[in-house]
Amino acid sequence: METVELFSAEGKGRGLKATKEQWAGDVIFAERAYAAVVFDSLTHLVCHTCFKRHEKLHRCGQCKFAHYCDRTCQKEGWAKHKSECSAVKKQGKAPNENIRLAAQILWRIEREGGGLTEGSLVSIDELQNHVEHFGDEEKKELRVDLESFLEFWPPNSKQFGMQYISHILGVINCNGFTLSDQRGLQAVGVGIFPNLCMVNHDCWPNCSVIFNNGNHEAVRSLFHTQMRIELRALGKISPGEELTVSYVDFLNVGEDRRQQLKKQYYFDCTCQHCQKGIKDDLMLAVKEGGEKPSQETVKEIIQYSKDTLEKIDKARSEGVYHEVVKLCRECLAKQEAILGDTNIYLLRILSILSEVLSYLQHINEAAGCSKRMVDGYVPCVFSRRWNCACSSRMNLCTTK
Ligand SMILES: [Zn+2]
Ligand SMILES: [Zn+2]
Ligand SMILES: [Zn+2]
């Protein structure tokens, strides 16, 4: 980890800053999961070691619960699965993903101790849990999780206090990072990456996180790579600059972003973009030329878009891609009459549509959507011009 260092970020607790210059696309660091589990609904469809999705997976003969691409993935996952395997076998079924992840973390602590692991800047003990900020509903969920955890945790494993188990469940709640399958189309699991947890949020981040499932295809195991996340620079970063990612979709209207951050991460965002409301007008643009649509009409179409995006999410998580396409096309037809080219709700639909269409091999239509999407993102956010002298994309403009 010679590319980053921990520091105390003003008003934000700890943070990470760069120690070396980085350029767009550079991998600042890669990190393996401290622990990770497949979502409940996909445990038989996704490999429990590398999180790739396959038609045919190899099942653990002992618990019949864990699934793997092949023997290589099974062997690699065994150290982590061993205790889980006998606990699942004993209980006759596996508990939910939160409990499984908490158990994976605690078994690792049992094996290695709670201190720093190799390559980590912080230990699990030091991660934030926000349990003290929980509302009634969240406290109730925590109690239910604690109960099912205790039911699942074997008496012959190391015993932990209730407070410590609550800490782990709290850490999962606010630090869990979503993992995707090898096509990047579907969220398939959740993992804890301690170093990544140290990267603070900004609504206009200078880094993004990419999930890499790893690769075992080479004949020689020397060339195999393991599942990991990669923190990549989005543009030039100077030594000493704080590294940031966006905890929420940063292409979201300021108010929505702040609401989501408060709800899930318990802080009020005070970043530049939030303070100055930068981009909000572009992201809410309505169609120009002709009669300006009424506020009421705009409100309606935005609500309709939000509802459709929820339906799309659901269809996507179920892998029903033709339904996703249908929903996108219907929504787009309605949006086009009212919303401007830079409107975030229109761009979001275009983005999903182009991604899913290219997966379905409708290349021409996919390319058309991508072109429109890129054009929508092009106007410079600082100069508000389509052809700003900085001649870079909206998200990389450096002209202030
Ligand atoms: Zn695998
Ligand atoms: Zn097993
Ligand atoms: Zn912000």
What does this structure look like?
This protein has 400 residues and is an alpha+beta fold. The protein has two domains: 4-245, SET domain (Beta-clip-like); 279-377, Tetratricopeptide repeat domain (Serine Threonine Protein Phosphatase 5, Tetratricopeptide repeat), CATH 1.25.40.10. Helices cover 41% and strands 13% of the residues. It has twelve helices and twelve strands. The strands form five sheets. Strands 3-11-10 form a three-stranded antiparallel β-sheet, with no helix packed on it. Strands 4-8-7 form a three-stranded antiparallel β-sheet. A hairpin with a 7-residue loop joins strand 5 (58-59) and strand 6. Helix 1 (71-91) packs across helix 2 (97-112). The radius of gyration is 23 Å and the shape is globular. The protein starts with a strand and ends in a 23-residue tail after the last helix. Residues 382-400 have low confidence and may be disordered. One zinc ion binds next to helix 1. Residues 2-248 form the SET domain. Residues 47-85 form the MYND-type domain. It is an enzyme of class 2 (transferase).
